[in-house]
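fyi for ur records
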Amino acid sequence: MNTYSALLTAYLRDQIAQGQGAISFAEFMQTALYHPEWGYYSRLTALGKSGDFTTAPEISPLFAQCFGTQCAAILSMLPDRCILEVGAGSGKFACDLIGSLKSLGITLSHYYIYEPSPSLEREQKRHINQQAPEIESLITWLSALPKDFIGIIIANEVIDALPVHCFAMTPDGMKERKVVLSHETFTWQVEEPSNTDVKNVLDQLNHTYHFPMGYASEINLNVASFLQSLIGAMQQGVILIADYGYGEREYYHPERTQGTLSCFHQHNYHSDPFLHIGNQDITAHVNFTQLAHLAVDLEANLLGFTTQAGFLLGCDLIRWTEKMEHHLNDKDCYVLHQAIKTLTLPNAMGDVIKIMGLSKNMRAITPELLPGFRLQDRRRDLD
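which gave:
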């Protein structure tokens, strides 16, 4: 255990003591990931070979290039050609997306990045300065979401890092799984829900799905305020959300008995959030049905919902691949093809990552302007 992990562990123990011996997992996850001094995202550069996990933009520029195809179609309808990326990773996606739009004849007015993690913001600035200094003047880092934004907002693998509450079905009914200390070790304990919001959601889920004994999963109460902040920041435009997740029926499938809570440390996956505290990523998949219902309540329109594979193939993946192959030797072509498999095959990222499109004040948008959602329309999975 390093110094930061020790400090964070001590802080969490104090939180539990102050919380009458237990805290919600959402509180634990919030502290472990986002404590301003010792939290995982406050200190570490988590991406890439030296980090803990790899996102789609890091695997191949094809991911951002395909987003370029979709963004170009949408930007043609807007009075202002701006993009706002929420949680920009290493900065590679921004570089590749701006480059792809330029090759399509689209000159952006501005590219904004809203990055809550100080360590990732430093990494983004370093990467862009080294790899594409010519676009630095186009990019502005924001400390808060804007008002009256016109353009496209992109959130890639952001929602799965929002803190979640956990629950389990017990002989005494649906209970919340909270975090307690047992012999100075963090562990789970089932208790009554933390508040009425948690209780109401758990009661509704249990009424709908009749969970078997021992079933455990998660609910995300933070996604409502997150989505409200995105839609509230926008005057007109489209929001593109990419993340691991399912429609609600699949999320709470009877065979998914232990939920989707996932931890990543040095590219190793496990399911114990009480290991490597402050030194590992913790995520939970997205309930896209919940997201769609929230969007409608916030007066946004659901444009489309599809798999990552369907989105990329609909957005000219083959054409972008052929364009890249002209400049590659056989070895690099092999690497490219392996990356495509990772991005598109069902047993890799192709099916489990979904793309959702939402719009605000875009009445004239037509299916022709949504190539990413034409090939596989999966909106029925949200029922």
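The CA atoms of residues 224 and 294 lie 7 Å apart. thats all i got for now
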